[in-house]
Amino acid sequence: MVAISKSEFGIDIEKVKPIKPTTLKKALSDIELNEIYKVQNDDLRSQKLLKIWTIKESILKAVGTGLTIHPSKISINNNQGTLNNTSYRYFNIPHVPGFVGSIAMKEGKTVI
C-alpha cells in the first residue's frame, strides 16, 4: 500500500481471523459492541470487529500516539471518528481477500 499526504495520517491492516467480541470488548463502546453482536455469522462478525479495530488503530496512528491512548476513547460514526473533540475522517481500504484495513486523517485533510 502507498499513501501520500502533506499531513499526518494513519493506516492499519489486519488479517481476518476468528476473533471473539470479548477479546476486544474493552476497546469498544456499548453501541459498537451491540452492532457486533447483531451479526449472526461468526466469520462476518470477526470481519466487522476487525474493521472497527482498524479504524480505531488508524486514528491513533494518525494522532501519533499509537496504543498509548486507549481505543475506547474513540467514538466512530458515519466515516468519522472523534478523539478528544478532534474529528478524524476514515476510509475502509478496498477489499483485499483475507484482510481488512482503514486509513484515517484529521477532518479536512487529504491523502492520495
Q: Could you give the topology of this structure?
A:
Layout: E1 9-15, H1 30-38, H2 42-63, E2 75-77, E3 80-83, E4 86-92, E5 99-106
Antiparallel strand pairs: 1-5, 2-3, 3-4, 4-5
Family: Belongs to the P-Pant transferase superfamily. Gsp/Sfp/HetI/AcpT family.
Organism: Pediococcus argentinicus
Keywords: Transferase
Give the count of helical stretches. Answer: 2
Structural class: alpha+beta
Mean pLDDT: 87
User: What distance separates the N and C termini?
Assistant: 11 Å
How many structurally independent domains?
Answer: 1
Keywords: Transferase
Pfam families: ACPS (PF01648)
Organism: Pediococcus argentinicus
GO molecular function: holo-[acyl-carrier-protein] synthase activity; magnesium ion binding
Q: How would you explain this protein's 3D organization?
A:
With 112 residues, this protein is of the alpha+beta class. It has a single domain, classed as Ribosomal Protein L22, Chain A (Alpha-Beta Complex). The protein has two helices and five strands. Strands 1-5-4-3-2 form a five-stranded antiparallel sheet. The radius of gyration is 13 Å and the shape is globular. The model has no long low-confidence stretch (mean pLDDT 87). Keywords: Transferase. This is 4'-phosphopantetheinyl transferase domain-containing protein. InterPro entries: 4-PPantetheinyl_Trfase_dom, 4-PPantetheinyl_Trfase_dom_sf, P-Pant_transferase_sf. Belongs to the P-Pant transferase superfamily. Gsp/Sfp/HetI/AcpT family.
